[in-house]
C-alpha cells in the first residue's frame, strides 16, 4: 500500500509524466489531421474515378456520332436506306440508350428548296408512299436551310423530320461555328423534353465536308461543307450506370451546364434550369450531417459541364482509421505511465540484461554451429583478408578444405598462397590483388594442394569490403573436385559417343556401298537379261499377234521403269559417281539438284581432282546432299552458289543461298537435325564449320576439313569397333 501511494505521488509530480501527457495530446491532434486528410484524399480519389467514368461514357457516345460522320465520309451520296441500316446495326436502345436519335441535316439553298422538298416527298426507299406531307419547318424564306433530312429511329422522332436546325439564331450560330472550325458543336441550349419520356436533352453535331476538297482554311471548309450529322442525347439515360457503384457506393452528384468553352462560363451555378442530372432525384444526399464536397469541370465537346460531388462523412469513415486518434491518445498516456514505471525496475534491469546477454550468446553460438555444419555439408568455407596486415580469418571448413589443422594464431596470406597449385598461383594472386586494389570482384576455379598431398579443385570467390572502411576482402572457397570429375567424365563420354557415331557412319557407308553393288551386279543383270528376252518376244509378236504384242510392250515399259527405279535406289544408297572422284560426284549432285528442284545452282571449283581419301570424299558429298536438301525444304531460295577449294592442307566448301535465312537462337531443336548431322560429320573429321545467316539475308555454310587425318583420334573408334 505504501508503495502504491509513493508511485502515485511520484507520478503526478514527475515532469516526464506531464511531458508524456502533452506529447500524447499533440500526437492525438496530428493523427486526427492525418486521418482527416486521408478521408479527403479518399473522397478526391472517388471523385476522380467518377469524373473519369463520366468522361469515358460521354466520349463513347460522342464516338458514335463520329462513326456516323465517318459513314458520310465514304460517299457524298449516302441514301436514306443506307443511313437507316447503319443506325439499326448500332442497336442504340440496347448499346447506347442515352442516344434518342441520330440524324443528318443537309444544307439547302433557297433556289433548291422546292426541288429538295419534292425529292424527299417522292423518296420511297424506306416507305412505299414516300413522304407527301414533307416540308421545311419553320416556314419562311431564308438564304439557306439546314434541314433534318434523315433521322432514325424515324417512328419516335417524326416531329424533327424536316426541321431547320439553323432557323433560330442560337442554332445558326452553332452551325456556323462548327462549319468553320470542323469540330463538334452543340445546339447551345438544353432541351427539356416533356410528356411520357420526360428528360433533359442535348443535341450535338459534327460538320460534313465533300470528299477530296481541301479543308486547310476557313474558306476551304465553307466551300466543302454540305451538312451535319447529329445526335440527340437523353442526359438521364446517358448517366445511368456511368459510375461503377462498387467503387463509389455512397457518392452523390449533380451535373450542371456551365456554358460554352469559348463564352462566359456560369461556374459554380446551382440554377435549376441548368441542371442536367441529379443522382439523388432532387434530395440532399447528406442532409445536415458533416459532408465532403468537390466541384469539377467536365468538357463535353464545345460545352463545359460541372459535376458537384458530395458524400456523407459517416459513410466514408468505415475503416479502422476513425479510431486511431483516440487509440494514439490512450496508448500515449499508457506509454507515459509505463515509461515512468521503468524507474521502479532499475534494480532488476541489470539482472535482465545479463539474462538477455546469456540468451544472445547462446543463440550466437547456435548460429555459428549451424553455419559451420552448413559449410561442412556444402564443402564451402569462408575467409577474410586484412589488406594492410595480410592477416586472414578462416572458417573451420576452410581449414578442412586446405587440409590444415586450426592454428592457435590467425593464419596469414602466405599460408593461403602456399596451398595454391604452382600452375595456378600467379593467376589467383593477380585476381585477388585486383580485387583488393581496384575493387574488382574475383571468381575463379583453380587447384590447391592440401597439406596432406592430394590436389583438389576449388572455386574461390572474393569481394572487396566497404569502400569507406578499412582495406579488406571477404571470400569463400568451395571444394568442386567431384563436380570437375563429373564434368570431365561427361566430356569423355561425349567424345566417345562422337567417335562411335563416326564409326557408325563409316559402317553405314560401307554397307550402302555393298548393297548398291549387289543390287547393281545381281538384280541389275537379272533385269537386263529379262529385258533382252522380252525385247525379242516383242519383236516376234509385232506382226502376227498384235494384242499379245501390246501386252509385251507394256511389260517392257514396266521393266524399263523398274530399271530406272533400281538405278535411283543405287544412287540414293551410294552414287556410283563417287568412285570417279570427289569432283565428279559433286558435279553429278549439283546437276541432280538443278533437275529435281528447278533452282539455279552455280559450282566453282578447280578442274583438277582433289587428293582426298574415300572417307573425306564421302563425308563432303553427304554434307553437300544434306545442305541442298535443307535448301529445298526450308530456304525458299532461287539461287545457290557452291565453292570448293583447297587452302593450307584443308578443303574449304562454301554453300550460299539467297533464301529466307535462319533466325538467331539455338540450332539444336526438334526441327534442325539436318544441321546437327552436318556438325557431327564435320567434327568426326576434326573439321569445323561456320553458319552466317540472318532473317531475309540468305545463309552461308562454310566447311573446313583437314586433308591429313589425325591418327590418334581415329585409333579410338577402331579399338571400340574391335
Automatic annotation (TrEMBL):
Boundaries of each PAC domain copy? 442-492
Alphabetized CDD domains for the sequence: HATPase_UhpB-NarQ-NarX-like, PAS
Provide the Histidine kinase domain boundaries.
518-709
- Record flagged with keyword Glycosyltransferase: no
Alphabetically ordered keywords of this record:
Kinase, Membrane, Transferase, Transmembrane, Transmembrane helix, Two-component regulatory system
Q: Where in the cell is it found?
A: Membrane
Transcription as a keyword of this entry, yes or no, is no
What name is this protein filed under?
PAS domain-containing protein
From the record, give the transmembrane residue ranges: 322-342
Per UniProt, residues of the CHASE domain are: 74-308
Q: Which Pfam families match?
A: CHASE (PF03924), HATPase_c (PF02518), HisKA_3 (PF07730), PAS_3 (PF08447)
Cited PANTHER family:
NITRATE/NITRITE SENSOR PROTEIN NARX-RELATED, OXYGEN SENSOR HISTIDINE KINASE NREB
Main location group = membrane
Tell me which species this is from. Noviherbaspirillum galbum
Annotated SMART domains: CHASE, HATPase_c, PAC
Please give one Gene Ontology molecular function term for this protein.
protein dimerization activity
What GO terms fall under cellular component here? membrane
Amino acid at each position: 500500500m505504501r508503495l502504491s501511494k509513493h508511485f502515485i505521488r511520484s507520478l503526478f509530480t514527475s515532469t516526464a509524466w506531464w511531458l508524456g501527457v502533452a506529447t500524447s495530446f499533440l500526437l492525438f491532434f496530428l493523427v486526427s489531421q492525418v486521418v482527416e486528410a486521408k478521408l479527403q484524399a479518399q473522397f478526391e480519389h472517388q471523385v476522380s474515378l467518377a469524373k473519369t467514368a463520366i468522361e469515358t461514357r460521354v466520349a463513347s457516345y460522342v464516338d458514335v456520332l463520329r462513326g456516323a460522320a465517318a459513314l458520310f465520309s465514304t460517299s457524298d451520296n449516302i441514301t436514306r436506306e443506307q443511313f437507316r441500316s447503319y443506325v439499326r446495326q448500332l442497336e442504340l436502345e440496347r448499346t447506347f440508350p442515352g442516344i434518342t436519335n441520330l440524324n443528318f441535316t443537309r444544307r439547302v439553298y433557297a433556289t433548291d428548296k422546292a426541288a429538295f422538298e419534292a425529292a424527299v416527298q417522292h423518296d420511297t426507299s424506306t416507305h412505299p408512299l414516300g413522304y407527301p406531307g414533307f416540308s421545311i419547318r419553320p416556314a419562311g424564306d431564308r438564304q439557306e436551310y439546314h434541314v433534318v433530312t434523315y433521322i432514325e429511329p424515324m417512328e419516335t422522332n417524326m416531329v424533327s423530320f424536316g426541321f431547320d436546325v439553323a432557323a433560330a439564331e442560337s442554332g445558326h450560330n452553332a452551325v456556323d461555328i462548327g462549319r468553320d472550325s470542323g469540330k463538334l458543336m452543340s445546339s447551345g441550349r438544353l432541351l427539356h423534353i416533356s410528356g411520357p419520356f420526360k428528360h433533359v436533352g442535348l443535341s450535338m453535331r459534327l460538320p460534313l465536308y465533300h470528299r477530296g476538297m481541301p479543308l486547310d482554311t476557313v474558306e476551304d471548309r465553307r466551300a466543302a461543307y454540305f451538312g451535319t450529322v447529329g445526335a440527340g442525347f437523353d442526359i438521364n439515360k446517358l448517366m445511368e450506370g456511368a459510375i461503377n457503384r462498387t467503387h463509389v457506393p455512397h457518392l452523390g452528384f449533380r451535373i450542371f451546364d456551365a456554358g460554352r468553352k469559348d463564352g462566359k462560363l456560369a461556374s459554380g451555378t446551382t440554377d435549376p434550369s441548368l441542371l442536367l442530372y441529379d443522382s439523388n432525384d432532387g434530395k440532399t444526399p447528406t442532409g445536415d450531417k458533416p459532408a465532403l464536397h468537390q466541384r469539377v469541370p467536365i468538357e463535353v465537346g464545345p460545352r463545359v459541364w460541372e459535376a458537384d460531388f458530395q458524400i456523407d462523412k459517416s459513410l466514408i469513415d468505415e475503416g479502422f482509421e476513425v479510431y486511431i486518434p483516440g487509440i494514439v491518445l490512450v496508448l500515449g498516456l499508457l506509454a507515459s505511465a509505463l515509461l515512468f514505471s521503468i524507474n521502479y525496475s532499475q534494480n532488476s534491469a541489470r539482472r535482465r540484461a545479463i539474462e538477455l546477454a546469456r540468451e544472445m550468446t547462446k543463440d550466437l553460438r547456435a548460429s555459428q554451429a549451424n553455419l559451420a555444419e552448413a559449410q561442412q555439408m556444402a564443402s564451402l568455407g569462408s575467409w577474410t583478408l586484412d589488406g594492410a596486415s595480410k592477416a586472414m580469418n578462416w572458417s573451420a571448413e576452410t581449414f578442412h578444405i586446405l587440409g590444415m589443422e586450426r592454428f592457435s594464431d590467425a593464419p596469414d596470406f602466405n599460408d593461403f598462397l602456399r596451398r595454391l597449385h604452382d600452375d595456378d598461383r600467379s593467376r589467383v594472386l593477380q585476381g585477388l590483388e585486383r580485387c583488393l586494389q581496384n575493387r574488382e570482384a574475383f571468381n575463379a576455379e583453380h587447384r590447391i594442394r592440401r597439406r596432406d598431398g592430394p590436389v583438389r579443385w576449388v572455386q574461390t570467390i572474393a569481394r572487396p569490403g566497404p569502400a569507406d572502411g578499412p582495406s579488406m576482402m571477404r571470400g569463400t572457397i568451395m571444394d568442386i573436385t567431384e563436380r570437375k570429375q563429373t564434368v570431365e567424365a561427361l566430356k569423355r563420354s561425349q567424345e566417345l559417343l562422337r567417335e562411335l557415331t563416326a564409326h557408325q557412319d563409316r559402317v553405314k557407308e560401307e554397307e550402302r556401298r555393298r548393297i548398291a553393288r549387289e543390287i547393281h551386279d545381281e538384280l541389275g543383270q537379272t533385269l537386263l537379261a529379262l529385258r533382252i528376252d522380252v525385247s525379242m518376244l516383242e519383236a516376234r509378236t509385232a506382226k502376227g499377234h498384235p494384242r499379245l504384242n501390246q501386252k509385251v510392250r507394256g511389260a517392257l515399259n514396266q521393266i524399263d521403269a523398274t530399271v530406272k527405279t533400281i538405278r535411283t535406289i543405287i544412287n540414293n544408297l551410294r552414287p556410283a559417281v563417287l568412285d570417279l572422284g570427289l569432283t565428279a560426284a559433286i558435279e553429278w549432285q549439283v546437276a541432280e539438284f538443278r533437275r529435281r528442284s528447278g533452282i539455279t545452282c552455280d559450282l566453282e571449283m578447280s578442274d583438277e581432282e582433289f587428293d582426298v581419301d574415300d572417307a573425306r570424299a564421302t563425308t563432303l558429298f553427304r554434307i553437300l546432299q544434306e545442305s541442298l536438301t535443307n535448301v529445298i525444304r526450308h530456304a525458299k531460295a532461287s539461287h545457290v552458289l557452291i565453292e570448293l577449294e583447297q587452302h593450307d592442307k584443308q578443303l574449304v566448301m562454301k554453300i550460299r543461298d539467297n533464301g529466307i535465312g535462319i533466325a538467331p537462337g539455338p540450332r539444336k531443336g526438334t526441327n534442325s537435325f539436318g544441321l546437327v548431322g552436318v556438325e557431327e560429320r564435320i567434327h568426326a573429321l576434326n573439321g569445323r564449320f561456320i553458319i552466317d545467316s540472318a532473317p531475309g539475308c540468305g545463309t552461308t555454310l562454310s566447311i573446313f576439313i583437314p586433308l591429313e587425318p589425325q591418327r590418334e583420334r581415329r585409333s579410338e573408334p577402331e579399338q571400340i569397333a574391335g
